[in-house]
Amino acid sequence: MNPIFIEKFLPEQILNICYSYSMIKFSNYKKVDMDRQANSLISEYSDFLMETLMEASTSVVEQNVGKKLFPTYSFLRIYDKGSDLKVHIDRPSCEFTVALCLGADPKSKPYEIFIGEEDSSSDYKYYDKKGNYNRYRIDHKFPMLPNNAVVFKGMDKIHWREICNHDHFITVFLHYVDQNGEFKDYKYDKRNLLGEIKT
């Protein structure tokens, strides 16, 4: 499956609520744990609003990928200046991923997400998780703006982001698995219900 770009994923009112919620919540954040995957200051697994958004979006994602899906988990991240997203592939709970931008400052400046493969003949080089330069082929590049979403199979292709130059760039990742596929047991990320925090 090729990645699917959706220019306007959410109704404008829902987008505004999610953005305002994220800004208010994290303006009052007391405990900051560095997100090692992205070097960002703020990220959260299984936020209640984002889990609700994921569940409500299931039918939209199903229509785009042509499969019946189980939601697994949501992950909210606020990229800030100097953060990035190291080259990686996803775990089984992320058979289908929606990367959705909820808002940004500046909002008119895109922040690209790359999807591709390792390729020793490519001129493009970027960091792997160990901080080493490696060569990659860029198969797809999406310059993301607020309410843009990309639906892709995060286990099949490596993906990454370069250094962020925004004051903030808020992305929620909504993850799903095929109800009839080999990863169906990862429904709810093997939790009892959505919103539950894994221990």
Describe this structure in words.
The protein is an alpha+beta fold. The protein has one domain: q2cbj1_9rhob like domain (Jelly Rolls), CATH 2.60.120.620. It has helices at 12-27, 48-56, 58-65, and strands at 4-6, 42-45, 69-79, 85-88, 96-105, 111-118, 125-127, 133-144, 149-152, 158-161, 168-178. The chain has a six-stranded antiparallel β-sheet. A hairpin with a 5-residue loop joins β7 (125-127) and β8. The mean pLDDT is 93.
SS strand fraction? 35-45%
CATH topology annotation: Jelly Rolls
* Mean pLDDT reading: 93
Going across the biggest sheet, name each strand in turn: 1-9-5-11-3-2
Unreliable stretches, pLDDT < 50, 5 or more residues?
none
Q: Overall 3D geometry?
A: globular
Strand-and-helix sequence, N→C? Answer: EHEHHEEEEEEEEE
Q: Compute the number of helices.
A: 3
Q: Report the biggest beta sheet as strand number plus sense, adding barrel if it closes.
A: 6 strands, antiparallel
The tally of strands reads 11
Tell me the helix content: 10-25%
Pairing-aware structural class of the strands and helices? alpha+beta
Distance N to C terminus: 33 Å
CATH level-four homologous superfamily name: q2cbj1_9rhob like domain
Count of the domains: 1
Reported CATH architecture: Sandwich
State the name of the first-level CATH class.
Mainly Beta
CA radius of gyration is 16 Å
